[in-house]
């Protein structure tokens, strides 16, 4: 018999949105070689790694070159020095008790939010907000949990939780019970947040329904307002029902360096087919120790430097820089009369496209008339139609220039 493929892969939407965007931008640039295109589409940072991080990174690389300090295979879960720093800085000040064996260092929140589903049964009903970071959906498609995509752009066996201006981007509790719930706040792509009461409703829902929340806190460091939780564990009882994902990508510029962590509390349980409770933490530990080699020593040393006073000061400056851009984008677009969301506790600005213009229509308009690239909202899910995402990660100069160009359009 010939080798068979995993046919679930054939259920994936054929073209990744950013590939489609690149194609359009390249075509445009070819026809308009003099156009100075400003890219505000992809969510990659632009500021270099902090000096404090680079210094530790260098030192650790040197350690690898000496037999006295050389490090071989490390613990798959991460080095204790980094885990201790994470607990001390990201959780204790918020009154959250986390033990070392609940933290798993990894090479990305993308990998962890993508891989986590494999420790759960295929029969679970998965809920995602709509629009959504595509990794949550597509990894469940690959695993065979979703069925195929219908005409409406929705996978038949996924539960979609629309987040639009109509509900203030707050996902409503589902009418039919769901098992696994992906929540990301501050949200990519909408840039919106949940306050403590709104998040507490989800924690209570999960406790009542024996569901598990997969909480992506990748943009936590952009939170500026007081009532917005930085961690789901700020909500009472959340350790019994939530896994939380963090990343050094967006707070400290590690997108090309790769370091992140995931918290899997020991209280968290799911059930086997006989209805017996099974703790989740040992399953994730088993998964990681079998399939993952851990993050390299120099990178974990570099990540630990994020928590030094100098590291904190430098990352604070970078985040302030991006948030200044976010403010400029918001103000310019609001002044033009556009409806704008996000950008207050997040680097993403979510624009309602003008009446009668689709997400892709707005993309084409900005590309052709202002030579500015953003991301059509519909690429993040059907409820993203009629919206458009702009990121604050470009330089201040480019951000100002882009807003000047857009302001001149008659929209
Ligand atoms: N989670 C969300 C919501 C994201 O938007 C991104 C990156 O854009 C990630 C996770 C990926 O993080 P990492 O770079 O740690 O893989």
Main attributes of the structure:
alpha/beta; binds pyridoxal-5'-phosphate; Aspartate Aminotransferase, domain 1; 2 domains; 4-stranded antiparallel beta sheet; 7-stranded mixed beta sheet; Aspartate Aminotransferase, domain 2; globular
Summarize the structure.
With 411 residues, the chain is an alpha/beta fold.
Overview of this protein structure:
- Strand 11 and strand 12 form a beta hairpin.
- The radius of gyration is 22 Å and the shape is globular.
- A 7-stranded mixed β-sheet has the order 2-8-7-6-5-3-4, sandwiched between helices. A 4-stranded antiparallel β-sheet has the order 11-12-15-14.
- The protein has 411 residues and is an alpha/beta fold.
- The mean pLDDT is 97.
- The protein has 2 domains: 140 residues, Aspartate Aminotransferase, domain 1, CATH 3.90.1150; 255 residues, Type I PLP-dependent aspartate aminotransferase-like (Major domain) (Aspartate Aminotransferase, domain 2), CATH 3.40.640.10.
Secondary structure: number of strands: 15
Helix content: 25-40%
The CATH architecture designation of the largest domain is: 3-Layer(aba) Sandwich
Please list the strands of the largest sheet in the order they lie side by side: 2-8-7-6-5-3-4
Radius of gyration: 22 Å
Unreliably modeled segments? none
Largest sheet: 7 strands, mixed
Run of helices and strands: HEHHEHEHEEHEEHEEEHHHEEHEEEH
Amino- and carboxy-terminal Cα gap: 59 Å
CATH topology-level name of the largest domain: Aspartate Aminotransferase, domain 2
